[in-house]
Amino acid sequence: MIPRAGRVRRSRLYNRFWIALLVLALAAAGGCASKKITLRSTPDSPLIDLLDLNSFGGPKPSGRTAQLLRVLNLGEKDLGGDLRPLLAELQTINNQSPSAEIVHAMSELAFIGGKKAERYDKRIALDLYGASVLYAYDYLFDRRYYPTRNPYDPQYRGACDLYNGALESALRIVCADKSLRPGATATINTASGAWDVTCVVAGGNKTWRNEDFERFEFVSDYEVTGLKNQYLKHGLGVPLIAIHRSGADESPAEKYYPPNLSVPMTAFFRPIGFVDPTTGKAGERNHCVLELYDTVAVDETVVAGRRVPLESDLTTPLAYFLSRPELESLATVGLLRPEKLLEYRPDRPRAIMGLYMAQPYEPNKIPVVMVHGLWSSPMTWMEMFNDLRSQPELRRRYQFWFYLYPTGQPFWLIAAQMRHDLARVREELDPQRRRPEMDRMVLVGHSMGGLVSRLQTLQGGDDFWRLASSKPLSELEADDQLRRQLAETFYFEPNPSIRRVISIATPYRGSTFSNQTTQWLLGKLIHLPKALLNSQQKLFRDNGDAIAGGSLLRIDTSVDSLSPATPIFPVMLAGRRLPWVKYHNIVGVMPDQPWWLLNFLGEGDGVVARTSAQLDDAESQIAVPADHGTIHSHPAAVLEVRRVLLKHLAELDGRATSIARLAP
Cβ distance 37 to 222 under 8 Å? Predict the structure, then answer.
């Protein structure tokens, strides 16, 4: 017979074992953040191989430039020293007979000279990098070279790479002492003269201002490791990671930007007046503008009447933001310590939970609000967000918002809070109701987030309240504040601004993973807010007979709320909704599901059975071969969300066209 002390110890070990097992299982199915980016040992550049930048004897000219020098009888020139005399000779030859081949070689040699000069004189290096940028700019846009420039020649892309590489190298020198900031004109003294460089936020994006950015990082310094797809666009300019300065703006949208938001930007150099460093006189000044474009909003510029695509990288700035260590704990904190997301602190203007915007608010774009599931956070959406934002037709018309909430609480309480938060953001951003795009909102919910999203579109009332109490709300013993909270939770109106809901792996009839064992285990782990517990206990004491054991008010945690026995599911499925709301559903079917899981759960995604995830009133419904934790990043799910968003636009545009035809 085991001694009592031994039985207690064994019982505790048994409990800890199952708790640890549950933690591992939920973490595997959840959306916890991980390292998304690493710092490169050397910056990435397409010029590395062309010019042997990293070789022991490099850098050195390409074979094509070496051949040109031989043809011009300049092949014996010493390329290991100061290249400015050689550039002057080439400039003289080019002045007599302008040639795209020569000006390209000059850009290449100036870049090589800049690399060599960096070792001993940064001022000379700036001269040569500036010359390289401008020679490449001339090759691409000076009409003198149109007859001899072949756009199908690899040299054309080489000129773009030289423009970008030389501009980035110059910016690294200039930014080392933080002498160049948006909104300012900096005078940079170099060996051949002074540069007046004006730095501005450009591109027609009226939301960002010059003072909105704290610092800039170079995209080429980082390598994306934690996102499957990387979205790059070739063109001109230097892709940057712009770090938003929190609190710089007093606009209503400012508080919805997460701290240290990273914005994809591209720096484009536009000369206004240029003094050739090989022929100009000391003291003469160069004038140029360094334009910073938010490439989510603008992906091209105009030069000499021509539309020019901007070199851009939408993914690396996102990965940079996601790699912040504090983001990794949001999912676990939201589940086990939900009060932490509800706290206000003097150093932040709001509680952590609520709506977040991953880009500046634009009133002419439709909000797509993404709602995460149990033991998760907005980080779980980043694969899908990265893929959707890469589509120009989507980012031109949509803006993506994310809803963060404490997942330890029952989902109908979360839905009540989200209802309040959506109403507040509308009141703050569009108090006069003049922005029609705000009334075309789309919600995308994963797992429990799909239930929270559906509740935004339903009509509450007595059917919901009867699940909480046998007494009418007006007869319940409660103070005014608690009575108001109960009314908001059970007597609610559908949000008229929501037009579509896309649900993914949503347990519309509960999940058998919510059972006595998991409810008991997570009941040990989840610590609900003290204020909530205190108000609950008082409510039960004062109204014991009216709140039976099966009441929704006696369900404490989100895991309890997801039990198939919870009576709210059939009421939700039969709930009244506005006639214009459309539902779309994505169901997970786990491939090669093990036999023991099939016996326990039935066919499904490993957490939610297919029979529970089906939605009878959905306009469209597809099955995706994925498990619960990865379904929302599966290509088939991303393509389906993209299809629905495009369909939403097509229907809106068709309706607008029909109305225009009917107008007198």
Answer: yes
Q: Encode 365-376: b = buried (16+ Cβ within 10 Å), e = exposed.
A: bbbbbbbbbbbb
Cis peptide bond N-terminal to 591, omega within 30: no
Range of the domain at 119: 47-175
Cβ neighbours of residue 361 closer than 8 Å, sequence gap 6 or more? 207, 251, 253, 256, 399, 429
Tell which residue, 183, 151, 167, 134, has the closest CA to residue 306: 151
Strands (E), 274-329: 285-294, 300-303, 306-309, 312-313
Residue 596 CB neighbours (<10 A): 8
Q: Which contiguous run of DSSP H or E holds residue 339?
A: helix 339-342
Q: pLDDT grade, residue 326 (50/70/90)?
A: low
Q: Which amino acid is at 597?
A: L
Q: What is the pLDDT of residues 216-272, one digit of tens each?
A: 999 999 999 889 999 999 999 999 999 988 776 678 888 899 888 899 999 999 987
- Show the tokens assigned to 469: 């109490």
Evaluate whether residue 551 is within a structural domain. yes
Which element (helix H / strand E) includes 38?
strand 37-39
Q: What does the DSSP 8-state code read for residue 35?
A: -
CATH number, domain at 646?
A: 3.40.50.1820
| Reduced DSSP (H G I as helix, E B as strand, rest coil) percent helix, strand, coil of the chain, to 5 | 45, 20, 40
Q: What is the DSSP string of 43-102?
A: ---THHHHTTTTSTT-----HHHHHHHHHTT-TTS-SSS--HHHHHHHHHHHHHS--HHH
* Chain segment 416-448, per-residue pLDDT in tens: 999 999 999 999 999 999 999 999 999 999 999
Instruction: Tell me the percentage of the chain whose pLDDT exceeds 90.
Output: 49
Residues 6+ apart with CB under 8 A from 342: 351, 352, 353, 406, 529
Helices (H), 390-473: 392-395, 411-429, 448-455, 462-465
Domain count for the chain, please give it. Answer: 2
User: Mean pLDDT over residues 58-87, rounded?
Assistant: 87
Chain-centroid distance of CA 383 in Å reads: 9
Residue 247 lies inside a defined structural domain of this protein: no
Amino acid identity of 430? D
Using H for helix, E for strand and C for coil, what is the string for 641-661?
Answer: HHHHHHHHHHHHHHHHHHHHH
Q: Which of 140, 175, 210 is the last residue of a domain?
A: 175
Whether the Cβ atoms of residue 265 and residue 216 lie closer than 8 Å to each other: yes
**Pair 309, 234: CB distance under 8 Å:** yes
pLDDT at 7 over 80: no
Question: What is the rounded CA–CA span in Å between residue 540 and residue 521?
Answer: 24
Query: What gap in Å lies between CA 63 and CA 189, rounded to an integer?
Result: 34
The token pair at 225 is: 């490791």
Which has the minimum average pLDDT: 1-10, 158-167, 216-225?
A: 1-10
Closest by CA to 465, choosing from 429, 435, 492, 440, is 492
CA angle 343, 344, 348 (to 5 degrees): 130
Residue 305 Rama label (left phi>0; alpha psi -120 to 50; beta): left
The pTM is what?
Answer: 0.86
- Dihedrals phi, psi of 604, to nearest 5 degrees: 175, -155
Distance (Å, whole) CA 188 – CA 185: 10
- Round the CA-based radius of gyration of the chain to a whole number and report it: 31
The answer to whether position 305 is within a domain reads no
Q: What is the pLDDT of residues 522-544, one digit of tens each?
A: 444 444 444 544 566 677 677 87
Q: Which of 153, 175, 197 is the last residue of a domain?
A: 175
Does residue 218 fall inside a structural domain? no
* Residue keyed to tokens 């504040």: 481
